[in-house]
Amino acid sequence: MPEAERLRDSLQRLEQELGRPPELADILEREDCPNLPPFQDAFGSWYSALWAVGFTPQNPPSYWEAALESAGYATPVKPVQKWTEDRLLDDLCELADALGRKPKAVDVAHESEMAAPRTYDHVFGSWNTALEEAGFSATPVGKLRRYSDEELITTLQSIAAGLDRQPRTADVVVRYAPEGR
């Protein structure tokens, strides 16, 4: 039996046992399941393995992770932290106090103890809504430019070459974020 088929079978057995699609933590905790590298080798990523079996991942990768993967970089596996609205707003206000001004998304991106700016977008619907909920004025937004996948991948690879390492979200935000974002 080919490796990919064996891995698909193990995911389907695990789904039947759990009563839900397996999560990464499920396979990492089990001795009777293949670990992460075989799934990455056979399918390219954990999420691609789930999609190949027909499962919808519980916590699919962000656009950033998908972009890194498309550009040929490994995506970090991080534990999922649950951010509450109150915690996000408190962090935003504390950062504003420290900066002495309304924070920008790029400021948040540089704070390792804070959620990523994308988390604010996800929880509040947009960065501006998060700012307003925290008591700040919204940042005016200009017309957004659309980029092709090829342009984004080329840009990501160019940034990586300039840094001589895999880029982080903050590296891209610093170079390309509109003023105030």
Written account of the structure:
It is a single chain. With 181 residues, the chain is mainly α. It folds into 2 domains: 3-59, no CATH class; 61-181, no CATH class. It has helices at 3-18, 24-29, 36-43, 46-53, 63-70, 85-99, 105-109, 117-124, 127-133, 149-163, 169-176. Helix 1 packs across helix 4 (46-53) and helix 3 (36-43) packs across helix 4 (46-53). The chain starts with a helix and ends in a 5-residue tail after the last helix. The model has no long low-confidence stretch (mean pLDDT 80).
Gist of the model:
It is built from 11 helices and no strands.
Taken in chain order, the helices and strands follow as: HHHHHHHHHHH
**Overall structural domain count:** 2
- Report the helical percentage: 55-70%
Report the sheet with the most strands, covering strand number, pairing sense and barrel closure. none
Poorly predicted runs: none
User: How much β-strand is present in the residues?
Assistant: under 5%
Q: Choose one word for the global shape.
A: globular
First and last CA, distance: 51 Å
Mean pLDDT: 80
